[in-house]
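Just curious: can you write a single protein's sequence together with how it folds?
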Amino acid sequence: MRKVFLMVLLLSFIFIITGIFLKETSPAVAEKEIIFGIIDGKKVMEEWPKFKSYSLQMEAQRITYAVLFQKASPNMTDAEKEEMQYQISKILEHSNTILMQALTNEMEEAAKKIAIEKKMNMVFFKDSVHFGGTDITDDVLKFLK
């Protein structure tokens, strides 16, 4: 999830710099008003039922593997325990990546639809914007529910 956030932050920065560059170099773009929306990612994670379900699913998977490890570990060497823990962490990481990508794609589609409806040029996460923009978080949540 941290990787996704950092990627979004980097892309947001690139879009902002590109927008500033185009505005200063192109008269046609300079005259066009740039309208951007913002999404409160934290609020989406707290209120989106699908994200809550994902969190519960990941926690259940983590508990299942912890129980499996506890049952198997008494008969294992330290090296085998370490290997099993490594494999479990890889499985959990892979599951997390797949589920987060699916959720991210769905949220991006919702943001894109709302942005088109509201004639916005760009949409950023609230954490990457210091000021300005129109908050479309509730519209995105409504679309996702």
In short: Strands lie at 36-39, 122-125, 134-135. Residues 62 and 92 are 7 Å apart (CA to CA).
